[in-house]
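Ticket #4471: structure output looks truncated?

Reporter: J.K.
Steps to reproduce: submitted the chain below (99 residues) through the standard prediction queue, then opened the result file.
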Amino acid sequence: MRFMVGVMTAFMQIVLGAIMMKLVEESYIGRVNGTITPLLMAGTLTGSALAGPLMKSITLVPVYGLSAIIILIAAFASLSMKLGESTASKMDQSGMHLD
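Returned output as attached by the reporter:
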């Protein structure tokens, strides 16, 4: 399970890095990446630290349910980002195509 979490964390970092490059100005990419990476690692460590006590206080199925709810909230929040429109607005502001 820890191996799969590590693989998924690496996958999410790659995806978030690609999205970040679309949304953030070039001069701020390093700063934003330097902020996001520790937050991802802290989230992974916090989730791992809370998993044991949560499973001892409630059973495994509600812990998985709580995890699913958190993932759904994050998925719905990410749907509101509208990546296509922000890329188009960047293109309009600079007057040139980014691709």
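Triage note (M.O.): checked the attachment and the full token line is present. The longest helix spans residues 29-57.
Status: closed, working as intended.
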